[in-house]
Each structure stands twice: as C-alpha cells, then as structure tokens.
Amino acid sequence: MSNPFDLEGRVAVVTGGNGGLGLGMARTLARMGCAVSIWGRNPEKNRHAEEELRALGAGAVAAEHCDVTDRASIADAFARTLSRFGRVDGMFANAGVSGQPKPSIERTPDEWRALMAANVDGVAACFQVAARHMIERAKAGDAFGRLVATSSVASIEGAAWNEHYGASKGAVNALVRALAVELARHGITVNAILPGYAESEMTAGLFANEKFVRNVLPRIPMRRFGRPDDYGGVAGYLMSDLSGYHTGQCFVIDGGYTIF
Fold first, then answer.
1. CA 97 to chain centre
2. Is 165 a catalytic residue?
3. Catalytic pick from 165, 197, 231, 257?
C-alpha cells in the first residue's frame, strides 16, 4: 500500500521559510519527500535554512531571495523556482510582520500600510502568481494545487494594542474563503493555518517579558508555547492528497489557547 503522506514529486514554496514557523513547515515537507523552495529576504538565513533541509536527505531544496511586499520580486522568485523544479504544487504564504504594539489611536497611516503590505498584499500576490500557474496546469489535465496562508489567532480574538495585525490576519482568512470557492473547480484547495503564541524570532521580545509569560502561559491548556515543528503536521496534511476535499478552512493550532 502506498504512503498517502509521500510527497515525492511535489514542489512547495514556503515564504519566510528560512526561520520560525516557516522553517518548521519546510522541515516536515522535506522529510515527507517534497521538494521545497524557501523564499526569504535574508541571504544568510536562506543559506543556513537550505543547508539544514539538505542535511535531512529527503526532497530537493533551493532558496530564493524574495521580498513579498514587492510584486516584481515575487514574480522573479517564482520564475526561478519554476526554472529549478519545473512546477509548483503548493504555495505556503507564511512571510509576515507583527508590527509595533501600541494604542490604536496612536497608530500612524504609514504603520498601518506597511503591515498590510506584508501580511495581506504579500499573501494575495503570492497566491495570485501561484494560482495562475496551477490553473494553466489544470487546463492541461494536471489539476492539483495547494494554497496555504499563515494567519493567526489574533484574527479571531480581540488583539488589543495590535489591531492592525489582527485586522490583517482577518483579511487573510476572508481571502482564503473567497479563493477556496473560486479555485475549487481547478483542483486547488485554499486554507489558512492560525498559530497561537509560538516561539520564533518575531515573538522573542514578547516571550522575554516575564509579565506576559506569567499571564498567558496558564491560559494555554498544553502549558507551553508553540514550537516551529508543531506546524509541520498540518502543512504536510494540507500538501498531501488526503486533504483534497478540505478547503476554505482555518486550522487553529494553539495548544487550546482559544478554547480556554
């Protein structure tokens, strides 16, 4: 019996895959035999992540420089990925920023626009370039595509002092649902992963705050914060054939935080 989680022959892009949750997803995808293209802005982090994934000895790996706030950069990275692998079966739009926590009445228009450019426009642009390619393949008889966005539980709870971040992730959830309906006819599923509080470079400063840890950790039934590899399982499932009828959904991975 064949392994339904064997991703050999599939190719996935993971934006922001050079660290944090993106690297956790990329590790699992590579272990499952998937070829992985890491997109990131930091050449040194890209190189280290590529070396780490290659050491797993599983799927082929490449790293591409990409700034998801720049559509030309996205188009170039996608073209290089196609040149390297010949196809893209999955786009994990994981790259994003957290923004500066402060009272909403002090938020400047520039701060709002900069965060939306990365967290909403970047996801939409990555999905658009991948969907064009996937639709072309579907019309040629090769109907398979996976679009996955990294959202946040901030999109479903009140993100006080971080309203622009919560709003950006809420927009991603709505985008996922709309595209799921539009693209299903082409064999493309579209879903979102909603992490809770998880360890990454983005949250390092937050977790260094003893008051924050003291107040939040008891609210997590698992009694720990998330780790990058905690998000690999759902990434692998969504990339596999087993998720072919699962679309338009928000997968909350938060150790039970939002139910407690």
1. 12
2. yes
3. 165
Give the integer Cα–Cα distance in Å for 91 and 130. 7
The two structure tokens encoding residue 226: 């998330």
User: What would the two tokens of residue 103 be?
Assistant: 């009272």
Can you give the CATH number for the domain in which 49 is found?
3.40.50.720
Task: For residue range 49-66, list pLDDT tens digits in order.
Answer: 999 999 987 779 999 999
Confidence (pLDDT) at 260: 78
Backbone angles phi, psi at 16, to 5 degrees: 65, 25
Q: How many domains are contained in the chain?
A: 1
Q: What number of CA atoms fall less than 13 Å from residue 208's CA on the CB side? A: 6
Which among 164, 167, 134 is positioned nearest to 148, based on CA atoms? 134
Buried/exposed 190-212: b ≥16 CB within 10 Å, e otherwise? bbbbbbbbbbbeebeeebeeeee
Specify the pTM.
Answer: 0.96
Which secondary-structure segment (H or E) carries 119?
none
CA triplet 154, 119, 253: central angle to 5 degrees?
A: 40
The domain in which residue 137 lies consists of: 11-253
